[in-house]
Design brief:
Number of helices: 5
CATH superfamily: Flavinator of succinate dehydrogenase
Helix content: over 70%
Order of helices and strands: HHHHH
Oligomer: single chain
CATH topology: DNA polymerase, domain 1
Distance between the termini: 22 Å
Mean pLDDT: 93
Shape: globular
Structural class: mainly alpha
CATH class: Mainly Alpha
CATH architecture: Orthogonal Bundle
Length: about 90
């Protein structure tokens, strides 16, 4: 990983801290295990998701609320699928 990539990853990791353990673990788990291999458009959607207010992200990831924007909905689906795979011991 290049220095600039490592710095960006560190910034994203910091932005994954949302104040609740469950949400922090969901976001960091996705970042650590899935983000780098994701297509560029999914990476950009993840960055945009992290710009949303904590309450919105919590609703999307833990409250069953569906983002109106398709790219954000797709990245939330990926985050939840990755978490389910980790919980099932598949990753």
């Amino acid at each position: 990983m290049a220095d600039s990539d490592a710095r960006e990853f560190g910034r994203l990791r910091w932005r994954c801290r949302r104040g609740t353990r469950e949400l922090d673990e969901l976001l960091r788990g996705y970042l650590d295990e899935e983000f780098e291999a994701a297509p560029a458009e999914v990476q950009e959607a993840f960055r945009r998701l992290l710009e949303a207010p904590d309450e919105a992200i919590q609703g999307y990831c833990l409250g069953g609320i569906r983002p109106a924007e398709a790219p954000l909905a797709a990245v939330v689906d990926r985050i939840l699928a990755a978490a389910a795979a980790r919980a099932a011991g598949l990753r």
